[in-house]
Amino acid sequence: MATYCLTVARLQLALGHGARRLHISTAYRAKAKVSMSRFEPTSFISYEKLQSNIDIVRKRLNRPLTLSEKIVYGHLDDPHNQEIDRGRTYLRLRPDRVAMQDATAQMAMLQFISSGLPKVAVPSTIHCDHLIEAQVGGPEDLARAKDVNHEVYNFLSSAGAKYGVGFWKPGSGIIHQIILENYAYPGVMLIGTDSHTPNGGGLGSICIGVGGADAVDVMAGIPWELKCPKVIGVKLTGTLSGWTSPKDVILKVAGILTVKGGTGAIIEYHGPGVDSISCTGMATICNMGAEIGATTSVFPYNHRMRTYLKKTGRAEIAAVADEYSDLLVPDQGCEYDQIIELNLDELKPHINGPFTPDLAHPVSEVGAAAQKNGWPLEVKVGLIGSCTNSSYEDMGRAASVAKQALDKGLKCKAQFTVTPGSEQIRATIERDGYSKILGDVGGVVLANACGPCIGQWDRRDVKKGEKNTIVTSYNRNFTARNDANPATHAFVTSPEIVTALAIAGTLNFNPETDYLTTPSGEKFKLEPPNGDELPSRDFDPGQDTYQHPPADGSSLKVDVNPQSNRLQLLEPFDKWHRNDLENMQVLIKVKGKCTTDHISAAGPWLKFRGHLDNISNNMLIGAVNSENDAVNKIKNHLTGEYGGVPDVARHYKSMLHWSPGIWEGDRGIVDSKTNLKKQGLLPLTFSNPSDYDKIRPDDKISIRGLKSFAPGKPLTAVLKHSDGTEETLQLNHSFNETQIQWFQAGSALNRMKEMQH
Question: How far apart are the first and last CA of the chain?
């Protein structure tokens, strides 16, 4: 049954925190500390603590535990007394670490500054990857980004130094690749301010994407709340081979579960097929679990992870993990809420899209589907890399395909771009010759950053509105996400399939069966790709791009120019006025999907993520108005004129009108309920989902029952229609006592300050 969500939104708050997110310094091996390069001395891994908590919980529950349960419950703040019921209760957790990308880090650090605390309570890092626009090529684009974003980078660098947060400079790489190379390890719990933080699950970690307010809580030393996740088991049998890649596993699972099927659950992969997947391949699968709404995804510890840890300079951690390996795999006989079985021997290469990552096609069938549906067959651009697929193995397999074409005198018919996931990957593939091969076949190597995957792409080969097809190894392909062109048909697949299709120049090409033609007229078929899982030599770390915070940053200053249009110090939100919310004019009733991309788009808006007032100018501008099927065109019921969503909302605010936005509860809003609560908002759902249809765009709504607001007690909505009639609806909420206190105080941060006095 569909879920619907009604959220009372203040214009002050920019929704869409980008949200959904370990330089380990020392490992506790029983009693000994092992120091490592670039690592904070306060960071540690304690399997003894994990073991103790798991033993307590297992005794209480008296049943076998899944792997995800072990790691999650192993981080409980109070394992003796915490109520545990999958899918119902809220857990109070103590994550080991926080990671923030530079777009969301701005608001998170501004909030932390306003808390008045002198230093973060857990190891934390900032990663500069979101603000670099792809235009010409890596060096040029990076230099331009450093100039354009100088003010933001300076703020993040100085704030990190003052408050004890590590700072990865622009050019260092994508947050999720840096985490995998440095911070993720089996059994750790990490939260990150980006929806693809689950990438770390490829190394046996529970890594969860959150909003900035959640990150602030953890950095402030406050227990973090998470609704106790359900667990979906994916049993893998067989072995990956040929053109089939780890990406095909998640493309297939996405087709099965759809973009909502994993909501509120952790996807836990297990079974004999796991051992045929590399550690970075497992990370790819976990990364794209965000596209099915999953809280996170995770794989059990195995020899692939051990090898990766050793290759990335963390042999000591691998040794400790070996000693505690029984903690890092599921118990025999554990039960899952749902089971999916996938035989890797039978799995074929997939390509998903357009416009949604759960529209799955075998590569062998996508050409026919394109012809049937009128999708452009010509591939204009092929793009490989991103946080999902930019490992050494990915680049090697893509290069093996490219070299076959070069050896036959062919180059890409489509434009072709390559995004290394980190400076370490860039330097290593350059040293080992992959970059030259990919460049010779027609590729342009972009900066070590998110780039086109998040819309940071100054695309100029097609005009806006021009129908065209691109294929990427990214994770998301929603309308206009990559290039701001709603007519671009974006498909996601593996890097090796992207490379093959870029060479062929058409969707109607199956490399398993179809032939290419050389300039001399010779026909040949591509051999299945191959690539080393890890370099035979050590990784080349490239340039040192990490800034470690000083031991004592209390004397340092963080300056924010009051005239800046990029950064703005925060003012506390108002407390609840102790009355019900009466006669609120509906701002917008949204039709269709309403993901974080619709609520607060990325791309050019990322530059304002540190300025609450300016970022509010993109609030819901991508959502479709049910009244007129238009985007960013709603009626101002005070003036009778039509305007943009933010403009009308600002007018209502100036007239002291509250304005609720109403939309179907797509996973983008459902997953961020806790983050909304932390900002003093009131996310509600309809008790009867069909009541959504009773609301009219010109209604005025009153929310009653707030004076007796209590956990589990529904609230009431009174709809006042313009024809004078009224209807009363029941609204559900998931607030607990602590969250109600956030609402009453105006925000979680306000409540934290109250408790300090």
Answer: 46
Across-strand partners of 590? 625
* Bond before 354 cis per omega within 30 degrees: yes
DSSP secondary structure of 455-514: T-B---SS-TT--EEEEESSS--BTTTTTS-TTEEEEE--HHHHHHHHHHTBSS--TTT-
In angstroms, the CA 387 to CA 384 distance is 10
Return the DSSP state at 615.
Answer: H
Measured CA distances, 478 to 40, 287, 622 (Å): 38, 16, 11
Instruction: Give the burial string for 96-121 (b: 16+ CB within 10 Å, else e).
Output: bbbbbbbbbbbbbbbbbbbbebebbb
Radius of gyration (C-alpha) of the chain in whole angstroms: 25
Question: Could you tell me which of 690, 581, 602 has the C-alpha nearest to residue 7?
Answer: 581
Question: For 73, left (φ over 0), alpha (ψ -120 to 50), or beta?
Answer: alpha
Residues in the chain: 757
CA distances from 529 to 409, 474, 512 (A): 18, 19, 11
Give SS3 for 144: helix
Handedness of CA 499, 502, 503, 508 (dihedral sign): positive
Q: What 8-state DSSP symbol labels residue 274?
A: G
CB-CB neighbours of 484 under 10 Å: 16
Whether the CB-CB separation of 224 and 93 falls below 8 Å is answered with yes
Determine the angle formed by the axes of helices 102-115 and 748-756, rounding to 10 degrees: 30
Name the more confident of 4 and 126.
Answer: 126
DSSP states of 282-334: HHHHHHGGGGGTBSEEE----HHHHHHHHHTT-HHHHHHHHHTGGGGSPPTT-
Q: pTM for the full model?
A: 0.85
Instruction: Return the number of other C-beta atoms located less than 10 Å from residue 42's C-beta.
Output: 12
Between the alpha carbon of residue 344 and those of residues 201, 242, 395, the distances in Å are: 20, 11, 22
Q: What is the rounded CA–CA span in Å between residue 476 and residue 488?
A: 13
Quick: pLDDT tens for 69-84: 999 999 999 999 999 9
Residues 294/201, Cβ–Cβ less than 8 Å: no
Q: At what angle do helices 392-407 and 423-431 cross, to 10 degrees?
A: 40
Binned at pLDDT 50, 70 and 90, residue 12 comes out as very low
Residue type, 630: A
Judge whether 126 and 102 are in contact, CB under 8 Å.
Answer: yes
